[in-house]
Amino acid sequence: MTMLEVFDVIDDISPTSTNGQKRRNRASNSSDILPTKKRGAVKDVIADSIARMALSFEEFIRAGTKNLDPVEVFAEVQAVPSLSENEQLKACAWLIENDKQFQMLKALPIEKKKSMLLMFIARGSDLVC
Q: What is the pLDDT of residues 100-111, one digit of tens each?
């Protein structure tokens, strides 16, 4: 192979031609392949999929969060003997935000409920500055 042939090969595989002009890259993208009507249909399918995914996520979030009845929470806390009014209010506010802990409180024997509430009220006050 002569030097001239080597330069021709380099020129053929180079992204720019020997005169400095950029060669046109023929790598196709999806807009080159799909007709205009099909591109719109693909966008609609993607938009519908995203909307369904968002709705599914919202339903998942709603299913994971239960709305506790404040009257039920207050009645359960009020049944715990020898809690001050301030402790009752703090316990109610904490339990409304922690539905699993409320379920646990309901399952405990009455003599253990005060300890549980005081423990979590104290922990909550440590977190609030």
A: 899 999 999 999
Q: What are phi and psi of 22, to 5 degrees?
A: -70, 135
Contact 46, 39 (CB under 8 A): no
104/68 Cα distance (integer angstroms): 14
Domain boundaries, the chain: 30-64, 70-127
Question: pLDDT tens digits for 42-87?
Answer: 778 888 889 999 888 888 777 665 678 889 999 999 999 999 999 9
Burial 57-88 (b: 16+ CB within 10 A, else e): eeeeeeeeeeebeeeebbebbeebeebeeebb
C-alpha to C-alpha distances, 121 to 3, 74, 81, 100, nearest whole angstrom: 86, 15, 16, 15
- C-alpha of 89 from chain center: 32
